[in-house]
């Protein structure tokens, strides 16, 4: 069965992949939890509530501080064929009445409101008779008195959790600063809230790519530089995970395999061992990782090139969640490109889809081949600007030269 959130992403919005963080946020909401999602501008925060709204059905309320933002989003949703409405002060009475009729008759999936509109007794009374499935608060930092964009109208939103006690609430903002974050949490959520801070940059993860020669030896050498640490090793095939794990075991490394071809019991046993013991290396296919939140994973090692830059980002993101130094190391060679191209061509899919998949692969190859700062390329792909990071192989390989090359650079830059 296809994942309903993916189907909505594709059928309604026309996107093939979630951006980093989106799937985690959506899963938490679909699981009935409250979420505070802190993601950079351009990360795609709107989809984090639009997709679950459509998966859940019923009516989603979206609070947004600016009429222009609301109108933009409503127009875009309608273009995509989604029943969306806004009731706001810039519309005349007739337009607002017509919008309310659509809401009351159940045609509207997402209703955009300014906070002061939503929090009137009349509106809340009327909404209480409808099936409200989700409440989303965009630009949620407006609720924080410490923030630069404080809106007194936002304060009243703290009543929402009592008014809609069984409805998941999502607050999204690009303001990641710690005090604003806890302020938002305190005001909007009494109970447990899942706070996901998803700036795309994970500066503690060192990024490196090594040309593939003898992957077994290269992997072993890498692991020997991280004795006693927990790590994840991704391989393309099930067979290879088992061979690699056996090879590591033979060389004194505690390694376990994980792939979808193993029995449920064996998979669970290995996953438990990885989660509870320290110093276990999990050699896995991409079947391993969903919902894995082990804070002290010191590295993610790709013995084969992943499927896309999105997949790569998601997979390496399992390293260093505790904020300590961690590494993402990939082996990459021409064979990987050939293999990935074959995969795409062999897929039973439309030509358009294949073209897109090849283009996505080109992006990943570009990342592998770049001589620029890898983090710049990676973050740039997700719309985030960054300066050279000093924590990737390309940055670190730029050793100052004895002939004064480094000095020249500094002078030119000044
Ligand atoms: P934010 O509110 O986080 O600044 P938006 O929700 O406005 O970002 O989204 C920014 C842009 O990214 C929009 O054009 C949106 O269509 C696009 N976008 C969002 N999610 C995806 C995705 N999964 N794949 C491709 N594009 C996406
Ligand atoms: Mg936004
Ligand atoms: Zn760098």
UniProtKB/TrEMBL annotation:
Keyword entries, A-Z: ATP-binding, DNA damage, DNA recombination, DNA repair, DNA-binding, Helicase, Hydrolase, Isomerase, Membrane, Metal-binding, Nucleotide-binding, Transmembrane, Transmembrane helix, Zinc
The keyword Aminoacyl-tRNA synthetase appears for this protein: no
Ranges of residues in domain Helicase ATP-binding: 26-194
Needed co-factor(s): Mg(2+); Zn(2+)
UniProt key word Oxidoreductase: no
EC number of this enzyme: 5.6.2.4
Annotated ranges, domain Helicase C-terminal: 215-362
Catalytic activity of the protein: Couples ATP hydrolysis with the unwinding of duplex DNA by translocating in the 3'-5' direction
GO molecular function, one term: DNA helicase activity
Superkingdom to which the source organism belongs: Bacteria
Enzyme class of the recorded protein, top EC level: isomerase
Transmembrane segment boundaries: 49-69
Family in the record: Belongs to the helicase family. RecQ subfamily.
Name of the protein in its database record: DNA helicase RecQ
Originating organism: Mesorhizobium japonicum R7A
């Amino acid at each position: 069965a296809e994942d309903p959130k993916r189907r909505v992403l594709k059928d309604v919005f026309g996107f093939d992949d979630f951006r980093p963080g989106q799937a985690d946020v959506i899963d938490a909401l679909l699981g009935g939890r409250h979420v505070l999602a802190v993601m950079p501008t351009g990360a795609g925060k709107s989809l984090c509530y639009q997709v679950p709204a459509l998966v859940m059905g019923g009516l989603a309320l979206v609070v947004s501080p600016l009429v222009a933002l609301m109108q933009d989003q409503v127009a875009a949703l309608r273009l995509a064929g989604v029943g969306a409405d806004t009731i706001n002060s810039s519309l005349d009475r007739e337009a607002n009445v017509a919008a309310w009729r659509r809401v009351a008759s159940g045609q509207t999936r997402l209703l955009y409101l300014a906070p002061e509109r939503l929090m009137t007794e009349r509106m809340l009374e009327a909404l209480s008779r409808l099936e409200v499935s989700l409440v989303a608060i965009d630009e949620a930092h407006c609720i924080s008195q410490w923030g630069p964009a404080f809106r007194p109208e936002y304060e009243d939103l703290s009543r929402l959790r009592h008014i809609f006690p069984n409805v998941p609430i999502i607050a999204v903002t690009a303001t990641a600063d710690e005090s604003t974050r806890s302020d938002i949490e305190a005001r909007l959520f009494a109970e447990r809230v899942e706070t996901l801070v998803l700036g795309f940059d994970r500066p503690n993860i060192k990024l490196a790519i090594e040309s593939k020669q003898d992957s077994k030896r290269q992997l072993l050498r890498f692991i020997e530089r991280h004795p006693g640490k927990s790590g994840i090793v991704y391989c393309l095939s099930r067979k290879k995970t088992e061979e690699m794990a056996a090879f590591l075991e033979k060389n004194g490394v505690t390694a376990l395999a994980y792939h979808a071809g193993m029995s449920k019991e064996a998979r669970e046993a290995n996953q438990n061992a990885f989660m509870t013991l320290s110093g276990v290396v999990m050699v896995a296919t991409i079947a391993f990782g969903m919902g894995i939140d082990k804070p002290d994973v010191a590295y993610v090692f790709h013995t084969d090139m992943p499927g896309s830059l999105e997949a790569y980002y998601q997979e390496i993101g399992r390293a260093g969640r505790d904020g300590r130094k961690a590494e993402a190391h990939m082996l990459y060679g021409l064979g990987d490109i050939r293999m990935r191209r074959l995969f795409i061509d062999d897929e039973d899919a439309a030509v358009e889809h294949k073209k897109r998949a090849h283009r996505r692969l080109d992006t990943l190859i570009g990342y592998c081949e770049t001589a620029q700062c890898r983090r710049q390329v990676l973050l740039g792909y997700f719309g985030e600007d960054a300066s050279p990071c000093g924590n990737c192989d390309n940055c670190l390989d730029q050793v100052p030269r004895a002939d004064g090359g480094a000095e020249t650079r500094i002078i030119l830059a000044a």
